[in-house]
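Shipment paperwork, digital attachment
Item: protein structure file
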Amino acid sequence: MSTDVIDLSGRPVIIGGGAAGLMTALELAPEPVVLLSKSPLGAEASSMWAQGGLAAAVGDNDSPALHLADTLAAGAGLCDEAAAGRIVDAAPAAVERLARLGVAFDRRADGSWRLGLEAAHGRNRIVHATGDGTGREIMRALIAAVRRTPSITLLEGVEARRLLVEDNAVRGVLAANGRGPLTIATNRVVIATGGIGGLFADSTNPAGCFGQGLALAAHAGARLADLEFIQFHPTAFDGPSRPMPLLTEAIRGDGAVLIDENGERFMADQPGAELAPRDIVARAVWRHRATGHRTFLDARLHPGADFAQRYPVISAFCKMAGIDPASDPIPIRPAVHYHMGGIAVDAEGRSTVQGLWACGEAARTGLHGANRLASNSLMEAIVCAQWVAASIGAASEGPRIMLRADASPPAADPSAVRPILTHGLGVLRDRAGIARAIRSLDPLARRESAASDAALVGLMIAVAALKREESRGGHFRTDFPDTAASAVPSSLTRSEALALSRDIVASVPSVRSARS
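Attachment content:
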């Protein structure tokens, strides 16, 4: 039987304990809010693992206009220029806000920011904390701030399973913990659940981040946008660990290069070389490996002996694997890292469902377009949290209602979906592979099972990828390798995706027939 949490009724509910969720809760203070985190704070948040830092035009030779130009170039024609401009304009103030909350950013002896360079940035504008531990330091400060803020009711170990919606408006959250289901009556919900990396076998994201927020929004009837654009980081540590340890782009910004087992720099003749946009580097690594080569990040010369001091976290896990980056090349391969698509939101973070907002990687704000510029994601989460909070604060609480006792769906398990997406929606895609993925995902998405939510998100990604018959940013079709003359954003609802999937399944021969 469902248990109504009477004392929390009417409060805004924030789903997700990463940087976006924590910052939104803090920005709403002193208004009472409820923060749901399915695990202890920070345990399954991608924010905790972020190495690169925050991109912000805080240097003397930089400006938001230059930052915007780099963002638009990386986004391959699909950024919302107005939204992107508004966000990057607010980035310097967001860094200062984090510093006031206690984040110990790296500074020079004179107190100025120590700024790093990453791919496709025209200036050193990456603000770091503790070298390659930026995400961990930001999360430390935000978690401490949340725990000392009395207006925030933190429910750890509580997982949102469904949003209760009537007449396209949120009415409550159906959740579950170890003691069973519970419902919270509210007409204001924020989804801040992070990305989709856990839907793939090879990812730098925590395994627990597999698109649950997108599934919540899709079941609620919200529109999702640009789902086909998935960023593969070109330099994940090529070893047995899953999730895969990340080798931050800042290492290449410090002068490290990509080589193969023969010592050849296979990116040397490309525009931008190792600091080309991530999608270009990831495809180059993928193709070089496909010809039988192994691929490595060579930091022996730059940063060389300073590696351990500059990147203590990376140095530690390399040495656990028997590699000293100052003297050994580091084996690398591409891995799913970031999702540019997500819940379609406006400038205030509002979705197409009344009373539903999204923030962070789960949201599609228009900043990233087809290919996220490095280190724009943490910045986006911190900046947009203030606007989401202001929008929620201006919304009326709404009438108190009695919620129906809905049955709680089972806890989601993406294990059946991972091999399907890994093989069908990788760095290089084609119609046959995407269609096979759709055929496998469709029945899983339609039935009520532990795999259904992950399958629904995967199906919506695959349908969007099949519809986009071009190559752009993080979406590369080997059967449509050219970029279309005009850039058109894509969007889908759950019902639209299921209808398109039905048609695709009906038109594609079965795997058995295709092989006979």
